[in-house]
Design a protein that fits this description.
mainly beta; 13-stranded mixed sheet; 2 domains
Length: 288
């Protein structure tokens, strides 16, 4: 189904491309939307119940595959110039299961993506435009991103960032765990109220801030990483096995534990702070 501008509302059994003939309570319907867009398009999807997955296609169009897993779902879909907007909710105030929808979205490489979901997962792979994600309990996964801005807010959903380069990153979570794998950027900020924060990789030349109130923080870096680390915990334990030169202990006199360490010219700066949790800075095996 090729849809352009306008508002589309999809009740049960209408505008359905694929219908699997299974019992009504488990019926699955798939609808495809296609839009032609220009450079730096904006794609905004709100889906309170169900995952959203966004991938770069390289083409100057937005393709949205919406899969409905229950009886009634309403979708408002519209194009306003270079902006595509989707909003999903259960029709007639139905239950969460009735209101579930799964989205698979293909976008131009440079498109800006705005995703929101209360319970579903939010996923992005290979895009180069800005990402703005707001989640609740569902996980957030971002992979293979370059030269972008990433802004993520969650309540207790886990956040995993993998293979991200030269990207500004801001992650805020009330209680979710945050993991960064091979992530570099000029400015990387992660804050979780109760969750654990884990960073693994070479920080390159960026500025990093990893903070949590009661969670633990673990940093793993190759021994040749060029970095200055300031680590501190008021109530937790702080230790490191990284070859800093020198390593200066701080937090004497009842002010908690901490240290300041430098390595190989200190091209990157990393501030690591937890109020209650333990902090650990370690080296990975071998050179990066």
């Amino acid at each position: 189904m090729n849809l352009g501008t306008g508002v589309v509302r999809i009740p049960v059994g209408f505008a359905v491309v694929v219908l699997l003939f299974v019992p009504m309570a488990q019926a699955q319907k798939t609808t495809k939307f296609t839009y032609t867009v220009g450079p730096q398009a904006v794609v905004s999807i709100t889906n309170n119940n169900g995952p959203i997955t966004v991938k770069a296609s390289g083409a100057m169009r937005v393709v949205v595959n919406a899969i409905f897993r229950a009886d009634t779902v309403d979708i408002n879909a519209q194009q306003r110039g270079n902006r595509i907007e989707f909003q999903t909710r259960a029709a007639h105030g139905g239950s969460n299961e009735i209101g579930r929808a799964d989205y698979e979205v293909f976008i131009p490489n440079d498109a800006c993506v705005v995703l929101s979901s209360s319970t579903g997962s939010l996923n992005a792979d290979g895009v180069q435009g800005d990402l703005i994600f707001e989640g609740g309990a569902g996980p957030v996964n971002v992979t293979n991103i370059r030269n972008a801005h990433v802004h993520i807010k969650t309540l207790n959903g886990t956040v995993t960032l993998t293979n991200i380069a030269s990207t500004h990153i801001e992650v805020t979570s009330a209680s979710g765990n945050v993991e960064l794998r091979n992530v570099t950027g000029p400015d990387v900020s992660v804050h979780s109220g109760k969750g654990r924060i884990a960073y693994s990789g070479d920080p390159g030349k960026g500025k990093y801030s990893l903070k949590t109130h009661s969670g633990e923080i673990e940093v793993l870096m190759p021994p040749n990483a060029s970095v200055q680390v300031t680590a501190h915990s008021f109530l937790g334990h702080v230790d490191h096995t990284f070859p800093f030169h020198p390593s200066l202990r701080t937090g004497e006199g009842g002010m908690g534990q901490g240290f300041v360490g430098t390595s190989d010219g200190s091209a990157a700066f990393m501030a690591v702070h937890s109020f209650k949790g333990n902090v650990s800075i370690r080296q990975t095996s071998g050179r990066h």
